[in-house]
## 1
Amino acid sequence: MTGRFRFLAAFAAAACLSAAGTAYAYHTSFVADSCNYAAPTPTSSITRDGSTTVALRARWEGYQWAGGCWNDNDRDDSPGDPVETPGTGGEGPDCSGFTFKVWRESEKTSDAGFYQWGLFRFVHGPYTAQSFKNGAGAPNTTYSKSALIRMDALASDGHVGLIYAKNPDGSDQIIEAKGEAYGTNIWTRTYRGSSSYGGARRFGWSS
Amino acid sequence: MTMTTRTIRRRRTTVAWLVAGALAGGVAVPLVDATAAFGPSGDVPASAVEGTHLPPLLTVVGESVELEYDVHCLPAGDMDRPCRAEGAVYLRPGDRGAFREIRLARAPDGRLTATVPREISGSGTGFSYYAEVEDAGTGATTTLPSAGAAAPQRSYSLLRPVEVSLGAHQFGSTRTADARVVEARWGNGARDVGLEEGRDLTPIGGSSFQVAREGAVHLLDEANRRVLRWRPDATAPTSVPLPIRGTLADLAVADDGSLTVLETTADPGEAPLLRVFGAGGELVGSTEIAERAAQVRLGPEGIPFVLQHPSAQWMRVADDDRHLLPPRAQQATGRPGRPVADGGEVIVLRRGDEVLVARVDGRSVERAWRVTSETPLAEVQLAEPVGDRLVLVVRTYTDAHDEFLVLVLDERGLVDRFSVQPFDWAETAPLSRFRLAAGSLYQLGSTPAGLFVDRFDLEVGR
């Protein structure tokens, strides 16, 4: 698409949106337009490599409180949602929904099986950051922080992130759904040493 | 990384045209609407591959050295698939001469590994290396570190590091600060420091700071988009407004008062920015950061260096004339240590429950320490040479407790040691909780009531 064509397309789109009035405040219709409620695919196992791939596909996408559906176009398709408002219909997971989906968990806390959820499947799961910290649910357990490895979690009462890699200085690279202003991505963090954070692990990794 | 960078650039150009078109349409269209109009429409990036690697920046002579790479493939479909990665590492003794290729083997856990031959790892000057890996399924490739042979990873060999054994840490016996030099409440007033707000967000505020030699404190109040500057003995700060993003960022302040702000989060479709401002807040320049940005520090002559991942290298972000460098030029300057004022560099490696730290001058190690602990060690917050000594601040932790250990080291071992409470109620830039200035250590701390900077006077030369 040439620059001139993009310019004209945007011109036309802007004019149409203006004529349509102010139906768009801050909400996007991302969930309504793009997401589904398909059943997950049960799988026989889970690997850290496979879960890393699932996590990386959320990288550069948005953040949505209580959300759980995103595409893979490397941008937040619903930026600027008011953080106080749940259910704005925007793109992206929140921190616990992201962990749930990457860890391939069931919506039933008594079920420790493995379920592959599609990117566009809107699902958050039954866990909060605090419940991951406490090892709640059949698939989850608390774990010593010094022994955590890739795709294990560091969770506080209000946030949870997944370990992506270790850094030479002793910090970690964490992949996480950080917040509306941050989206979902990888950052250097020092959660491991902080007593606000506990270690959490999903049961059943085959490798 | 190259593929990702190209993708970002293409999208930025597209967005620029789209925004220009919307504005020229003569209508006031909120940006979110313009974005939504071009929503999730199959703009799926090409398949790519990404690797991570914990480099053995420092080794002790006689150790066997294993290189390990985690390689992640990014398929374009909705389902994951096994990553059929393969590749080679290129090694040489020291930092000159031809590289020798060694194919990477696949370990049972999926990692790619190679053992460094003894004739290379046993070299008195250490070794240098880089790796090239490929997703055999798609042909996508990546190089670690990113500049490959132009700026390979460097590992130094330690002949006889000074041994420091800390034993088991006793929590609860922390030192009280000698002075509280800054204190501010959370808020948006002239004397307050702002907190970022949001669901799921731990408290974030006052993300970085620096202390000048004469004791002036600069605090990055990123939530209020400004730097607050406290002169010594002043009761109130002066404010320097800055057009920054307002999320977790790092700060470095030059002797002339100029301010360097490293953003670690980018606007949609863009890379994080490093911005340089004059002492009054006027924008001097900005450049994109090549990789994931971890921290910024000023080297000799006030040149900014940024620690970047996955290369795990300190990259120079300006040339000798202080012109900011574009990403590819940054990658070509990667080095393992942080440049310090005397022209050398300090290299840190935490491995397990020990920290190796070395002062390196050019090609040789001047002095090195190996600090071991029976209590787990987390991140090294500060490693700063002061004359013949080195001040090291590292977090020690259990699953229930944590404190920062402050160690003053010299050629014989431990000169001084104490611990301080973490005071980390609010999140800051990850490695910005301590600064050293004129023989004193400064800690950026916070509680639910507000933020403060404490001073601890050390037994080191000024």
Note: Residues 27-202 of chain A form a domain with the endopeptidase fold (from Nostoc punctiforme) fold (CATH 3.90.1720).
## 2
Amino acid sequence: MRFIFYVIACILLCVNVLYAQSNKKYAITFYPMYGESKLEIDSSYKLGVNDHIQIETLKFYISNIELLDKGKVVWKEQNSFHLIDISNEKTETVLCNIPLTISYDQVKFNLGIDSITNVYGALGGDLDPTKGMYWTWQSGYINFKLEGKSNVCKTRLNEFQLHLGGYQYPFNTLRSVVLDVAQNEKADISIDIKQLLKTIDLSTQHHIMSPGADAIFVSENVIKIFNIHKIEK
Amino acid sequence: MKNKIILFSIACLTFMAFKSLKNISFEVPKSWPKPHYDFTKNPLSLSKIELGRVLFYDPLLSKNNTISCASCHSQYTAFTHVDHSLSHGIDDRIGTRNSPTLMNLAWHPSFMWDGAINHLDMQALAPISHPDEMGETIETVVPKLQVSKNYRSLFYKAFGDSVITGQHTLKAISQFMLTLVSANSKYDSVMRKQTQFTAQEKNGYALFQKNCASCHAEPLFTNLQFENNGLALDTTLNDYGRMKVTKNKNDSLKFKVPTLRNIEFSYPYMHDGRFKRLSDVLKHYTSGIHHTKTLAKQLEQPIILSSNQRVDLTAFLLTLTDKEFLFNPKYSFPKNNLK
């Protein structure tokens, strides 16, 4: 009887130590940028010579975060769905339970929500439809939402609204991003909206609100604006 | 040691008994196919169904608290809109389609006349947020529910949590809709060999099987597919149906095949409610087919029915009326819980 007690005590101790170790959370932080500067809501930015931009909303889903080492997956987040919303700075830091000891040279994630999750039914947390990232008139998540104003938009109040989504063939907008991480770097990620807006002609492409060729075109460009965030020394 | 094992077993058994009391199983009518809805993701319980029923009948879900789901889905008409060709919402705004009936939804893989909704849980979002229907958003509905003591208590009973979420709201509404099963019409009794068709109904059934059943497949009386049934485009609405969702021109003018169950009470008919009477519908199929590229192949050859045959076919269609469903108090206004 006493022996069993010792064994249980030992197991508990080990679990506790392991838990404490794994509990050291490794966080990935997303840095929304406009070129070289931090992107701030409602600040005015210059795009072209006469083009002034204001960003009012930037929200997007990051899912299936993985770390790779020499092409092999060394760590994978379970149930990995994160809504990043620049109006809520808390969401920019994604807490992952990555063991600190792990070594990796690439980080991989999806921009958007996969098709299985899209047809799953009502989900909670970051996937709750109250997050404003679910299309109500035609089922499906909005993977990426960018709203703002530009004086090249000849629309009401010069507004543009880019809502990218669609999970069904041939308009599936889910895209994956793979970034190389140098040895002394942390897998923090910047997303440069200026780089994206340079690829879009806002005078014609100012409203995307349904799955289709436009959403695919812009999604292809969005995945190019993610980079490992370099901290200036 | 032995005592502990016995205690532990008793605890387990009590827990299981409690659980089975709480969760109830969905009854599939005899010889019906397996439902499409995955009940393991949203197990039915009486308290969740009741919460869904309260939400279904509560106008709080609309922007100005005037329109509930039941406004356009009334039980006595198989949960469609009584006597309105196009359904209307808040501020007397008129929509572009006739509200569909709500029956046997557990078997449906998609919803709406154009199948734009991919899951029953997400269905309610569409009418809640459509400006011509309830004109509200789920982001606002949830805080409106949260301030109500009654709802905090109902959500607690249903989900063990009085913090209200969009997910729980939608799952509860699904649960009520899933219980709307119509499987007790005269037709069903005949199939169960409890009663018999009259000679006229029998003749009508044979005509139905020959001319209608490929799209209105038994026992749901819909094949759940999208078809162009030869209705001419209403140029005041320009509704191309399924094509809007798929952006594929092969889906032009296709709409989801509606069930024929309780057809006696679900008038007016078609996606835009253009036909008031069953006789108008039969006239359309026998002499009104508008031929376009996407027309259902079953309708390429004319359907020929004599006036006697039309009477017989109608007699059969009336055997799909399920009074038990239409007047079941389980589905009616939840007067004990909607305050």
Note: The helical segments of chain A are 2-22, 115-118, 193-197, 213-222.
